[in-house]
């Protein structure tokens, strides 16, 4: 069983609308897989299904060999939502130590997680006084501190400067090198090139599941932004053909 995530025929309806429309995809263990697509394409919904908090209409979501949301996955899957989920009236260090304790980890792991996200200098600062980008890194530290086998990160680099973004991507790859699996969403196409594999979704349908090089070679262009445009146009042409 090499896949950390296996999606089979995943269909999700939200607010009476079909938001994911029959997704089949697999995320290999020990990889950094990017989940890309325009705003509203269904990235967050797919991540919610993987962490087991989304009611699904049809299909199956298997995570680390178990159905998504099973109690046995509680300490094995980490999730960073788009809204920072940290306590404003605790310091960065206190937040990390609190989440570490929930996962049976100690102070050393908590302090390391804070350093890993570049917040060592602000460790003693109340989260409520941090900038937006710092607050989202504090939240990231809390998602990483339990050392989960699968880490699902919803737009973890939004609001970060280019140096920090590069540092965070290095950190993601260092984690993958130790066998951790990361599913990372972004709508910034330049981050796509940093991923081992890419899932591209548009309007709830998967239009690519490949490596960056595989996508370049399928589309015949080097620039991934342009490659995605071509894939999107090809999928639209295909759907127009289906409809006629
Ligand atoms: N609670 C909800 N109730 C009804 N519809 C929702 C709800 N949350 C999201 N949706 C709809 O589901 C669709 C997919 O949303 P989702 O948040 O998964 O997209 P996304 O790709 O993550 O977008 P973004 O990049 O802007 O975060 C959108 O059309 C959105 O309006």
Automatic annotation (TrEMBL):
<dbReference type="InterPro" id="IPR017871">
    <property type="entry name" value="ABC_transporter-like_CS"/>
</dbReference>
<dbReference type="GO" id="GO:0016887">
    <property type="term" value="F:ATP hydrolysis activity"/>
</dbReference>
<keyword id="KW-0067">ATP-binding</keyword>
<dbReference type="InterPro" id="IPR003593">
    <property type="entry name" value="AAA+_ATPase"/>
</dbReference>
<keyword id="KW-0547">Nucleotide-binding</keyword>
<protein>
    <submittedName>
        <fullName>ABC-2 type transport system ATP-binding protein</fullName>
    </submittedName>
</protein>
<dbReference type="InterPro" id="IPR003439">
    <property type="entry name" value="ABC_transporter-like_ATP-bd"/>
</dbReference>
<dbReference type="InterPro" id="IPR027417">
    <property type="entry name" value="P-loop_NTPase"/>
</dbReference>
<dbReference type="GO" id="GO:0005524">
    <property type="term" value="F:ATP binding"/>
</dbReference>
<feature type="domain" description="ABC transporter">
    <location>
        <begin position="5"/>
        <end position="228"/>
    </location>
</feature>
<dbReference type="Pfam" id="PF00005">
    <property type="entry name" value="ABC_tran"/>
</dbReference>
């Amino acid at each position: 069983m090499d896949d950390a995530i296996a999606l089979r025929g995943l269909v999700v309806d939200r607010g009476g609308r079909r938001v994911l429309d029959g997704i089949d995809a697999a995320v290999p263990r020990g990889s950094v897989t990017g989940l890309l697509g325009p705003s509203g394409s269904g990235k967050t919904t797919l991540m919610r299904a993987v962490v087991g908090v989304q009611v699904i209409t049809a299909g199956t979501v298997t995570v680390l060999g178990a159905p998504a949301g099973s109690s046995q996955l509680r300490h094995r899957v980490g999730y960073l939502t788009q809204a920072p989920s940290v306590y404003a009236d605790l310091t960065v260090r206190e937040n990390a130590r609190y989440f570490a304790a929930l996962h049976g980890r100690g102070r050393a792991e908590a302090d390391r997680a804070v350093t890993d996200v570049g917040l060592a200098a602000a460790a003693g600062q109340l989260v409520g006084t941090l900038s937006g980008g710092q607050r989202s890194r504090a939240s990231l530290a809390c998602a990483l501190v339990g050392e989960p086998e699968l880490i699902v990160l919803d737009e973890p680099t939004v609001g970060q400067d280019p140096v920090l973004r590069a540092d965070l991507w290095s950190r993601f790859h260092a984690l993958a090198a130790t066998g951790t699996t990361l599913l990372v969403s972004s709508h910034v196409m330049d981050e796509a090139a940093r991923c081992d594999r890419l899932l591209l979704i548009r309007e709830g349908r998967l239009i690519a599941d490949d490596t960056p090089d595989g996508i370049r070679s399928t589309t015949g262009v080097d620039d991934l932004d342009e490659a995605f445009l071509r894939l999107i146009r090809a999928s639209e042409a295909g759907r127009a053909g289906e409809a006629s």
